[in-house]
């Protein structure tokens, strides 16, 4: 029986379409427990590869006969060998092309909305890492916000829509993934913007993005307005797009709020975090659609695959926005935090331009789940 190949994009579509899939993950148990492919109708079996070296006969009765089966490993080779062994036993099976590395890097572009006067807003869902990037397009021009290091995904997408990227923006200096902002700007001659309070140690040229600054896209002028909202970092900046959408970076998520400790300044920044969430955002329209820079779990995805919710609804449902006592809030965001992102300090140094690791090293630095939220 021929072994099939399944791509990260195909698994993403199955997840978003709520299809069934059974995943045989042959990584070590600690790697599986830390981070694995999730889906509402996905089943899992974690058997480390080394336990299958003598054959797969003993696990055959644990595999379904009525669902697609895909074997997953870290980079691909181990899953191919296990899939071959299963195929020899008559199992209809596939392996994940590129392994969890490919899963971590896949970006799924999804249209969020049509904007005024023919503009469009897209969300790029990095499904395996929980990162969310954005592109605003109008009249043949584009702005990219919080791009990941897979820069060709953004430049190719803009090319497909006959749009020239003119602005590249990071909401803050990221600590969980390597930004593609500088590379996109260099490749397209776009202007790269950073909040200046996060850029005091960067080694490259950028344009400062101060509170209230408005960038425009297209002749019909889609506005991107900066709103200074510190707390996750000292420079964290949100963006109001077309007076309808609020890009919150890593300050506010659908099911949680941003952590203030990734630069070792939790006690210093907790007051800023509360002020941004409980005052600055409260002054905005409840009808703004919140578009964060990360999500924590697949349950946060809407039916269309986007991650978005009304600001007013978040003030009802999000536990991080409903802590009346300031001392309790301080304890919530400074104590009992989840583990910090993998290689977060190296990632910060890379995003400052102080380090320039090879591509394989960058992949290694980013492997693992998103950990930008307090819970």
How does this structure look, described?
This protein is 27% helix and 23% strand. It folds into 2 domains: 4-103, Rhodanese-like domain (Oxidized Rhodanese, domain 1); 107-366, Metallo-beta-lactamase, Chain A (4-Layer Sandwich), CATH 3.60.15.10. The chain has 11 helices and 18 strands. The chain starts with a strand and ends in a 9-residue tail after the last helix. The longest helix is centred in the last third of the chain and has 15 residues, at 266-280. The strands form 3 sheets. The chain has a 7-stranded mixed β-sheet. A 6-stranded mixed β-sheet has the order 13-14-15-16-17-18. Strands 1-5-4-2-3 form a 5-stranded parallel β-sheet. The protein is α/β, with parallel strands linked by helices. A hairpin with a 5-residue loop joins strand 6 and strand 7 (120-126). It is globular and about 65 Å long. Helix 5 packs across helix 6 (181-188) and helix 7 (266-280) packs across helix 9 (326-334).
Distance separating the two termini: 45 Å
Main sheet overview: 7 strands, mixed
CATH class of the largest domain, named Alpha Beta
Percentage of residues assigned to helices: 25-40%
- Tell me the number of structural domains: 2
Shape: globular
Query: Would you tell me the overall average pLDDT?
Result: 94
Spatial strand arrangement across the major sheet: 6-7-8-9-10-11-12
Sequence of secondary-structure elements? EHEHEEHEHEEEEHEHEEEEEEHEEHHHH
Return the CATH topology of the largest domain. Answer: Metallo-beta-lactamase, Chain A
Q: Give the total of beta strands.
A: 18
* CATH H-tier superfamily of the largest domain: Ribonuclease Z/Hydroxyacylglutathione hydrolase-like
């Amino acid at each position: 029986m021929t072994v099939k190949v399944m791509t990260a994009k195909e698994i993403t579509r199955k997840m978003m379409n709520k299809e069934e899939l059974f995943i045989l993950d042959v990584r070590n148990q600690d790697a599986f427990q830390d981070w694995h492919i999730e889906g509402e109708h996905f089943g899992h079996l974690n058997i480390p590869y080394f336990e299958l070296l003598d054959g797969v006969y003993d696990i055959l009765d644990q595999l379904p006969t009525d669902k697609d089966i895909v074997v997953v490993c870290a980079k691909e080779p181990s899953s191919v060998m296990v899939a071959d062994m299963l195929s020899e036993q008559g199992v209809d099976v596939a392996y994940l092309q590129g392994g969890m590395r490919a899963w971590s890097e896949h970006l799924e572009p999804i249209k969020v909305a049509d904007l005024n006067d023919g503009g469009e807003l897209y969300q790029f869902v990095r499904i395996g890492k929980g990162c969310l990037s954005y592109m605003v397009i109008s009249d043949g021009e584009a702005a990219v916000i919080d791009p990941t290091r897979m820069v060709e995904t953004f430049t190719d997408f803009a090319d497909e829509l006959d749009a020239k990227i003119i602005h590249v923006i990071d909401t803050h200096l990221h600590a969980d993934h390597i930004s593609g902002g500088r590379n996109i700007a260099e490749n397209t001659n776009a202007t790269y913007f950073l909040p200046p309070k996060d850029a005091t140690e960067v080694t490259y040229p950028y344009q400062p993005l101060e509170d209230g600054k408005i960038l425009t896209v297209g002749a019909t002028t889609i506005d991107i307005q900066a709103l200074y909202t510190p707390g996750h970092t000292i420079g964290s900046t949100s963006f109001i797009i077309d007076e309808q959408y609020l890009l919150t970076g890593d300050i506010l998520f659908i099911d949680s709020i941003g952590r203030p400790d990734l630069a070792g300044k939790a006690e210093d920044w907790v007051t800023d975090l509360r002020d941004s969430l409980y005052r600055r955002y409260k002054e905005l329209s409840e009808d703004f659609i919140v578009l964060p820079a990360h999500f924590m779990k697949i349950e946060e995805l809407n039916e269309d695959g986007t991650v978005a919710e009304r600001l007013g609804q978040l003030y009802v449902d999000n536990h991080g926005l409903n802590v009346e006592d300031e001392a309790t809030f301080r304890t919530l965001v400074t104590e009992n935090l989840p583990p910090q992102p993998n290689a977060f300090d190296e990632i910060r140094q890379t995003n400052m331009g102080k380090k320039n690791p090879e591509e394989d090293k960058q992949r290694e630095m980013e492997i693992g789940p998103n950990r930008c939220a307090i819970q």
